[in-house]
């Protein structure tokens, strides 16, 4: 007799082994430390309010919010592969994860790689402690996927600083962020990257209506003052830095653990519908295929994170990981929605204590994952441009 256990995906994302039969290695200890904090954290409240900052502070106090960063900046100095345990545990406990992605994996990682020592010392410890947060200010009303045409301007104030003028859109968690990583065009038409303090005159943040759990925001910059110390990297080198920043975002890790969480949630639902599973009313082959694809995605993510640890991650590998994991996440979400035909299992128990079930959230979140951070079509175009057109060998 088939049971849902037959279809369970591995508990470790293919990244770090876990389970009762695994010795208590440093990596298993790391997982348990994170788990112990999350089980006692106010997760339900964070999901209701979409404000995970108290959870971030609890993790930050133990050096677990950015464990892959050096100890001098509040981390533990571990590898990207090992630090993936944190992202997995956040997803498995249904903690809103995008603020961590923005603050640590995108804004913080960008600073860690290209900022001056003074800027790192000024900002990274706060990010790692969960006492300061960041968001991304790249996209504009007329410049979404093609940032080359953005119009936000950085105008010299004649005193070594700049005034920023422009409107940014589709910024997640801007309402909670202390800083925005902003790409702007200089008077010489070259791009520069700024870390903009958002609590100052000239900054207006407006929520954009949407169907996702985490709202987008429009951020208007009207003469917002920044100093030379707020420039990330070198002036005029913003575009090259952003290309690297997008690679940090495109490891596939966040999308993969979402797919894994949604798959598990659907399999858990099947535990009360095993009669239909045994009767063949659910696509058993489909279940097995998704399980296999999750294993493959875990292997891909591990490879990408390993190359990131070595400083070898390139644009085409990041694009491949982003494309594969977002497509998989969307497939899992739709498969879960169709498990019970017209009466989807996501409707059996849509809310608990006012918090949406993970599968309900999946239906609303999955489509946007194929767009954010670079559309699926752009990822395929990148692969074609960098791999096929280069004459490089393409291996399965």
Automatic annotation (TrEMBL):
Annotated transmembrane regions: none
Pfam families, per database record: Acyl-CoA_dh_1, Acyl-CoA_dh_M, Acyl-CoA_dh_N
Keywords recorded for this protein, A-Z: FAD, Flavoprotein, Oxidoreductase
Ranges where the Acyl-CoA dehydrogenase/oxidase C-terminal domain occurs: 236-385
InterPro entries: Acyl-CoA_Oxase/DH_mid-dom, Acyl-CoA_Oxase/DH_mid-dom_sf, AcylCo_DH-like_C, AcylCo_DH/oxidase_C, AcylCoA_DH/ox_N, AcylCoA_DH/ox_N_sf, AcylCoA_DH/oxidase_NM_dom_sf, Mycobact_Acyl-CoA_DH
Cofactor(s) this protein requires: FAD
Residue span, Acyl-CoA oxidase/dehydrogenase middle domain: 135-224
The keyword Protein biosynthesis appears for this protein: no
Protein name (record): Alkylation response protein AidB-like acyl-CoA dehydrogenase
Organism: Streptomyces avidinii
């Amino acid at each position: 007799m088939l049971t849902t256990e037959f279809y369970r995906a591995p508990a470790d994302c293919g990244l770090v082994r876990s389970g009762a039969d695994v010795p208590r290695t440093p990596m298993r200890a790391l997982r348990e430390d994170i788990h112990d904090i999350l089980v006692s954290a106010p997760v339900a409240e964070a999901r209701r309010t979409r404000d995970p900052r108290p959870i971030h502070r609890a993790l930050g106090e133990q050096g677990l919010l950015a464990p892959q960063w050096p100890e001098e900046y509040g981390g533990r100095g571990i590898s990207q592969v090992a630090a993936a345990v944190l992202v997995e545990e956040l997803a498995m406990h249904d903690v809103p994860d995008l603020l961590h992605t923005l603050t640590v994996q995108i804004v913080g990682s960008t600073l860690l790689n290209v900022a001056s020592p003074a800027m790192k010392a000024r900002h990274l410890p706060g990010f790692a402690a969960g006492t300061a947060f960041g968001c991304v200010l790249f996209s504009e009303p007329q410049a979404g996927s093609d940032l080359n045409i953005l119009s936000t301007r950085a105008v010299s104030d004649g005193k070594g600083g700049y005034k920023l003028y422009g409107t940014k859109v589709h910024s997640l968690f801007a309402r909670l962020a202390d800083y925005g990583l902003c790409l702007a065009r200089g008077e010489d038409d070259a791009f520069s990257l700024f870390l903009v303090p958002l609590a100052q005159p000239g900054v207006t943040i407006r929520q954009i209506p949407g169907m996702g759990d985490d709202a987008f925001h429009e951020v208007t910059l009207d003469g917002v003052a920044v100093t030379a110390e707020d420039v990330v990297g070198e002036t005029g080198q913003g575009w090259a830095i952003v290309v690297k920043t997008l690679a940090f975002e495109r490891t596939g890790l966040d999308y993969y653990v979402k797919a894994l969480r949604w798959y598990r949630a659907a399999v858990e639902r099947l535990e009360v519908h095993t009669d239909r599973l045994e009767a063949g009313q659910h696509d058993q082959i489909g279940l097995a295929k998704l399980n296999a694809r999750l294993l493959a995605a875990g292997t891909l993510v591990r490879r990408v994170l390993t190359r990131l640890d070595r400083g070898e991650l390139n644009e085409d590998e990041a694009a491949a990981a982003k494309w594969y994991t977002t497509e998989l996440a969307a497939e899992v979400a739709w498969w879960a929605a169709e498990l019970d035909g017209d009466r989807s299992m996501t409707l059996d128990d849509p809310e608990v204590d006012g918090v949406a079930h993970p599968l309900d959230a999946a239906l609303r979140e999955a489509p946007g994952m194929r767009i954010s951070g670079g559309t699926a079509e752009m990822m395929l175009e990148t692969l074609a441009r960098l791999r096929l057109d280069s004459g490089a060998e393409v291996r399965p």
